[in-house]
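Section 5.1 Outputs to date
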Amino acid sequence: MAISSNSIFHYTTKMAILKKILLGEFFPSYCLEGEDIAKTYIPMVSFCDIPLDQMKEHFKYGEYGVGLTQSWAIKSDLHPVHYFLKDGISLLRKRGVEQKELIAKLAKKEFELLRDQDFENYKKFEIESKPLLDFDILNSCYQKQYKGILYRKGKEIDKKYKFYNDREWRFVPDLSKQKQFPRFILEKDFSKFKLNNPSKPHIKTDGLTLKFDADDIKYILVKKNSEIPLIIKYLKMKKSLFTSSDQEYLLYSKIISCEQIVEDF
């Protein structure tokens, strides 16, 4: 029995969301990660590499989805998550939170004073420190606790859920070269962000999204067998993923239902 798959799956809870994804693009959203002081909202699209014969244990994340090739994932800059024990992740995240707050404070007040008093040294500090800070922030976006509280739609599902079993991969957009979206958001600041960004997905800006085409797809997952004709009709109407009849018919052959998986695996 394989412990991982050569396919990367993204799950969702609604057919309507699956249809939007099948236009050929994933849009990142901010997701709450960590516990206690380490709680942080991180922009991402989440995937896993769970094999089909183990997939039914993960339908809690949704019974609709798309499975894409691992080569697409690597080409698209997806990476497996780094799992840490709770104490380790707390220390790492706490350092990141403290660092972010320090940067914000310096940016608003002390950086201006430093610039006025000694412009040459200020520029030197900025050039030497920014690349390291950029890497530190991005690296923290791929960290997750080994075990912890599982929330779904704001509700606590499991107090001791082993996240390690999810075999998660993530796409984290590079937000370092723009000013519209923060690279991560502290839990205490997220309500302010939501005033201007009330619903998911949060990031739809071209160049920050995750695109794919029909050749990248290995599976299209629907909940029921009866929904397979519905998704075929939708794909046939939109014609956004394929450019030839051969590509179109091959795409239809990749549709599978949760009912089939439960019965056959």
